[in-house]
Amino acid sequence: MKDGLLMNVCMISRYGKGPVEFRKVPIPTVGDNDVLVSIHAASVNPIDFKIKDGRFRMFLKFKLPLIMGNDFSGTVVEVGRNVVKFKVGDNVYGRPDKDRIGTFAEYIAIDVSEIASMPSNLSFEQAASIPLVGLTDYQALHDVLRLKPKEKILIHAGAGGIGTFAIQLAKQMGAYVATTASQKGFELVKRLGADEIVDYRNEKFEDRLHDYDAVFDTLGGKILLRSFKVLRKGGRIVSIAGLPNRRFGIEHGYGFIKRNLLGILAARISFHEARHKAKYSFLLMKPSGKQLGVIADLIERGSIVPVIDRVYPFGRVQEALDYQESGRVKGKIVLKIR
Ligand SMILES: NC(=O)c1ccc[n+]([C@@H]2O[C@H](COP(=O)([O-])OP(=O)(O)OC[C@H]3O[C@@H](n4cnc5c(N)ncnc54)[C@H](OP(=O)(O)O)[C@@H]3O)[C@@H](O)[C@H]2O)c1
């Protein structure tokens, strides 16, 4: 339908700190299991500036030039031959597979398994803020930690994009939630339901929190290593910012050399894991339209509300990326595409 027509996109043609480029490229063609979505809004995530810098190039192969952006909301304008679940005019939100990213664009062709109907009570800007953080948090708390009612969890960086959604999800699951934040984020995390807040700039969280069942680590490095101290014996840590370990390599079918390399790189984490008799898992979020459907239900029931810090017009992507990289964002940044 849109063959030969052009769309505006924001892309990079080389890795590095240079500014993003705006270009016109052909609107993508729709595969049999795809829908073509007219994008209304996209969100900005730390992964965007990390991809742009080339930080992932060792293990995530992107073909340059690359259209940026990892999640979106919009309206279906064309459906592939096998698609029955969605029709033209449906409002959807989604997170494309890593091989088909590119949501800082007017259109995206995406497999239907990676989208869901947008929560009916949200604007396009609000809905666009959800997919990447929502899926990551859902997979961390449900699939990896299997958090149970009344369990105690520490969620790091509660005021960030991941944290603001995770606090609400953990409360919805019936957990007792502690979080780390600076004073600027206190009011926000309290409003979202945090039971205990540690001002990470003035207090060590491990001095106050003990016998926790679980930790959701969003910061990695020394904070991850210190987090083992708050766990009870047999407690669990899931990290999205630390290092994958050997177990991750085995579960993801990596070959002998790669999985042992991970074992070496994550040796310090494994040492702490054994010492504290804990279980450490690294999570790499996977797209899932099915889970986005579950998340849409939670949002429509009012259990989770989006938290948006700033909305930028499409032409100011670079400013949005710079603000994201500052590490001071409270909730999410959204780009208004149309
Ligand atoms: N593995 C995966 O699949 C996956 C998926 C999604 C995200 N991630 C990663 O997860 C990380 C978090 O993402 P995000 O979107 O939440 O980032 P973000 O929104 O940029 O986080 C910013 C927030 O972090 C807080 N913060 C910074 N340092 C802190 C500290 N030492 N203790 C407590 N809070 C601190 C800041 O609060 P103050 O300004 O008050 O300091 C700010 O509110 C990123 O590294 C991202 O790449 C990984």
Summed up:
The protein contains twelve helices and 16 strands.
The number of helical elements comes to 12
Structural class call reads: alpha/beta
Query: CATH homologous superfamily name of the largest domain?
Result: Medium-chain alcohol dehydrogenases, catalytic domain
Determine the strand fraction and express it as a percent band.
Answer: 25-35%
Mean pLDDT: 96
Shape: globular
SSE string, helices as H and strands as E? EEEHEEEEEHHEHEHEHEHEHHHEHEHE
Give the CATH level 1 class of the largest domain: Alpha Beta
Enumerate the distinct ligands.
Answer: NADP nicotinamide-adenine-dinucleotide phosphate
Give the domain tally: 2
Distance between the termini: 20 Å
Rg of Cα set: 20 Å
Report on this structure.
The chain has helices at about 45-55, 125-130, 130-145, 160-170, 185-190, 205-210, 220-225, 245-250, 255-265, 265-275, 290-300, 315-325; strands spanning about 5-10, 20-25, 35-45, 65, 70-80, 90-95, 105-110, 115, 150-155, 175-180, 195-200, 210-215, 230-240, 280, 310-315, 330-335. The longest helix is centred in the middle third of the chain and has 14 residues, at about 130-145. The protein has 2 domains: about 5-130 and about 305-335, Medium-chain alcohol dehydrogenases, catalytic domain (Quinone Oxidoreductase, Chain A, domain 1, Alpha-Beta Complex); about 135-280, 3-Layer(aba) Sandwich (Rossmann fold). By secondary structure, it is an alpha/beta fold. The chain is globular. Helix 3 crosses helix 4 (about 160-170). The protein contains 12 helices and 16 strands. NADP nicotinamide-adenine-dinucleotide phosphate (NAP) binds near residues 160, 200, 219, 327 and 328.
